[in-house]
Amino acid sequence: MNWCKSLEIYQYLSEGKRPHSDMSYYSYVNFSWDDDKATALDPVGRLVYRSNLLGSDQRITNTGGGNTSSKLMDKDPITGRALEVLWVKGSGGDLRTAGREFFSSLYQEKCCHRSLHNSF
Predict the structure, then answer these.
(1) pTM of the model
(2) By the 8 A CB rule, do 60 and 29 touch?
(3) Please, where are the H alpha helices in the chain?
(4) Cβ–Cβ under 8 Å, residues 43 and 84
């Protein structure tokens, strides 16, 4: 498998874009992205959607596993400020069927705060 091409496709998908309209370009993976479906989802929903698509292709994902992540802007639930949040689907759940509840949200400003760096 040409992993560079697969990575390029994933990077475009993570931005909600379609890299090529010529379907013959995809010689190693099935292009299952549905723009209409993805447009109707919020950013975390799009991460879940693309994760499920990647997990459903057994040629590139092991059954019962898989990890995906995306940095998104989201509101801090306490202050209401817009912050960068890293959403991560870690090990221990099937990527093909994982819902939003399988993803952890890590608020980058809080995780990467200078005072925390001095603590470790």
Answers:
(1) 0.69
(2) yes
(3) 3-14, 35-39, 43-56, 108-111, 114-119
(4) no
